[in-house]
Design brief:
The protein has six helices and eight strands; from the N terminus they run βββααβββαααββα. The chain is α+β, with helices and mostly antiparallel strands. The two termini are about 20 Å apart. About 15% of the residues are buried.
Length: about 180
């Protein structure tokens, strides 16, 4: 289910650590802290987020996804993302697609739901795989002697935008 609001709440017990609290359209609250993750009971972070005025929320709507004939996930001027079709049985391309969507602002829960992936398919595993093996993208060919779709492995991780000088993580998140 898509999230309506997202908050970054500082931990009381661990200085410098922040947890993300989200509210869904059905008014269900979730937190990334261990208390909520393991017990599924309301935590102090959720209570803090519920007490905040709506203007203090850190929320950027997910970009609309449009399936198109493109090499890789491509942002468009209207804010949408052009996404290539996923070839069947290619886990490397799946990792790349999930990584790119997440890097362009699609929530991980939405990615898992869209591609019917298990909750055990984690962001950390995906990022580690891409760091080790690179990103796999389409390489189109107009040569009739070659297969229509080939693949290319790209090393390095392109980020949508880099943080600005003295920009806080909250400001970066709201800007990107």
């Amino acid at each position: 289910m898509p999230h309506v609001e997202s908050f970054s709440i500082a931990s009381n017990s661990k200085p410098g650590l922040c947890y993300t609290v989200t509210r869904s359209q059905a008014n269900d609250w979730q937190c990334t802290c261990p208390h909520w993750t393991y017990r599924r009971t309301e935590c102090a972070h959720i209570r803090t987020a519920q007490s905040l005025p709506a203007t203090e929320s850190i929320h950027k709507p997910e970009p609309p996804i449009v399936y198109a004939h493109v090499r890789e996930v491509t942002p468009q001027p209207d804010g949408s993302l052009y996404v290539p079709l996923l070839p069947i049985g290619d886990p490397h391309f799946l990792y790349t697609l999930c990584f790119d969507l997440y890097a362009h602002g699609v929530l991980w829960a939405s990615i898992l739901e869209r591609y019917r992936l298990p909750r055990s398919f984690s962001r950390d595993t995906c990022v580690a795989f891409i760091e080790q093996h690179g990103r796999k993208v389409y390489q189109f060919s107009d040569n009739p002697a070659l297969p229509r779709h080939q693949y290319q492995i790209l090393s390095g991780i392109p980020l949508p935008d880099i943080p600005r000088y003295q920009e806080t993580p909250v400001e970066y998140h709201s800007r990107t």
